[in-house]
Amino acid sequence: MVMEIVCPAGTPAALRAAVKAGAHTVYCGFADETNARNFPGLNFSREEMQEGVRFAHAHGAKVLVAINTYPRAGAEEIWRQAVADSETAGADAVILADPGLLDYAARNHPDLRRHLSVQAAAANADIINFYARAFGVKRVVLPRVLSVPEIAAINAETDVETEVFVFGGLCVMAEGRCSLSSYATGKSPNMNGVCSPASHVEYRETGDGLDARLGGYTIHRVGRDEPAPYPTLCKGCFTAGGKTGHLFEDPVSLNAEQLIPQLAKAGVTALKIEGRQRSRSYVAQVVRNFRAAVDAQAAGQPIPQGMLASLSEGQATTTGAYKKTWR
Amino acid sequence: MELTVGANQFFWKPEPWSALYDQLAQAPVDRVVLGELVCSKRLPFYQDRIPAAITTLQKAGKQPVLTSLALVTLKRERKMTAELAEMGVEVEINDLTALALLPEGAKFSVGPLVNVYNESTLSWLAGMGATRVCLPPELPLEAVRTLAQAGRDLGVAIEVWGYGRVPLAISGRCYHARRHGRTKDNCQFACEEDPDGLDVRTLENRSFLAMNGVQTLSDTHACADHQVETLRDAGVSALRLSPQTGDFAGLCALWRKRLDGELAAGAVAEALQRAQPDIRLSDGFLTGASGTEWSGAQASA
What 3-state class would DSSP assign to B200? Predict the structure, then answer.
């Protein structure tokens, strides 16, 4: 069976590009704080969502709507409306993280398929089966803290489909369990759908290079002619105990393309590509490559080598937690 | 308002570990959460001391509560989580896995590492048997107010992070091990060298975070000294204090006086800074533009 590739779309144009490039499934969100990529100029209006679903369905692709921030106390109606509007738009599933919202969706929109967002950080079979029992969750997006053998062990103990990240930005912390960004900037993934937001980034020329600051803290410094990576907090440069470096993670991105055969063997249903903030040409290129890779996998052929290297952030990639030594 | 002492987030040697609970038995606190929150590899070093600590606290009239791990992934972690309820004291879930593994119908409390951001989740947890919830430390005062009100209606006691380095993130990767060029499986318990966490500084040498194995904390010690009256009026039942080295029982006594009205707003912060001039305080998650901010800064400037 061909593994499903789940592709990012930050705009209607990216959605169409992903579908045309061979995406089985596209995920996207509404243009507000209900999803974890709440960036300026990104995401879908209600009309665009309806049109996007129509386009995808006409081409045999599915659309998942991410409503995966944690609803604000006193303002839950915004999130509930997003669930209702996803159903109206004809979405194939919603991707949720908050137990209260899952409970609401299960009660009020029982026919709308529910996926568990990576933001819920469900990292073992007990909790995954619990979400299935409590809220009828059909698929879980696994947090990026698990090795391939651990993923296989989870699949052996659950009927819930698993989806794993294979390409793009990489959280080093358990997703949905991280307040680093709100500590430094006041804006958090859980509450605002942003991490290390551009509004709080500042670049400063120094005598011999460029400092990158986030929320007033200098967390990256490069020489005059070096490329300056975006100052994402957990990939910043810090000093502890007399040692300076990327103490949490290097400025790398995830590329698990070569692990596709192992992930298939581990029982993974779907492969997720990060990057709703990316351009449609980037999305199209990544999707084409991954579609070729999963088709090759299904046909019992080797995965083509190194096609995506030039698209990776800072040119350096990692297979992250999928290899146990990453820990 | 009551005082709860949260789980010790750090890895202490067995003797100081036990000494903390002996001291807390004599301290003016109501509830003490103990057990391993951060890393399951630490537990064998003090596990056999937990029953005695529970008994000591019970004899002194304190309510002992057992915490779950913050991130449960391994088989043996699932097993130890499932066994928590067998100790016969209340369990504080800090990963929903612990809720999934609790005996049917058991009452439980919810720790600060479970995402309770809104009334629906609070209400769902109450329906599952939650009697007390310590809110996530990143919640602003406005959300605390709304949830304290909802908690009153549901009969769930609401607790707020009152003092201590704030747990900001948990990972599959051990940063203490990484800093020593090791992997988590071969960590050699590097985190034991830093019983209050290891300072992480920015490139301009500003204190910023603290490393604690797989956990990342704030460099600042959150301190709700200036919000005590507001939190009480909002219906918050308890403040949570997070253990640190030094005279922690004395620190608890200071907070007790503050809650009893014997000390005015700002007096706790002043006493803490006098005792430890190097620490920075914050209350920005409650009332500031970002978590690092400190509303007392202007007053003391």
Answer: strand
pLDDT in tens, chain B (301 residues): 999 999 999 999 999 999 999 999 999 999 999 999 999 999 999 999 999 999 999 999 999 999 999 999 999 999 999 999 999 999 999 999 999 999 989 999 999 999 999 999 999 999 999 999 999 999 999 999 999 999 999 999 999 999 999 999 999 999 999 999 998 989 999 999 999 999 999 999 999 999 999 999 999 999 999 999 999 999 999 999 999 999 999 999 999 999 999 999 999 999 999 999 999 999 999 999 999 999 986 554 3
CB-CB contact of A26 with A62 (8 Å): yes
Domain boundaries, chain B: 2-165+220-300
Chain A nearest-CA distance from B50, in A, is 26
Superfamily of domain B2-165+220-300: Aldolase class I (3.20.20.70)
Q: What is the CA radius of gyration of chain B?
A: 18
User: What are the angstrom distances between the C-alpha of B232 and each of A227, B205, B255?
Assistant: 51, 38, 14
Q: Is B167 helix (H, G, I), strand (E, B) or coil?
A: strand
Dihedral sign (CA A248, A254, A255, A261): positive
The answer, for A288 touching chain B at a CB cutoff of 8 Å, is: no
Write down the ipTM of this complex: 0.96
Query: Which of B208, B220, B280 is most worth mutating to test chain A (most A CB atoms within 10 A of its CB)?
Result: B208
Chain-chain contact of B120 with A188 (C-beta, under 8 angstroms): no
Question: So where are chain A's domains?
Answer: 4-170+252-326, 180-245
CA angle A125, A127, A130 (to 5 degrees): 105
A152 touches B: beta carbon within 8 Å: no
Question: A4-170+252-326, what's its fold?
Answer: TIM Barrel (3.20.20)
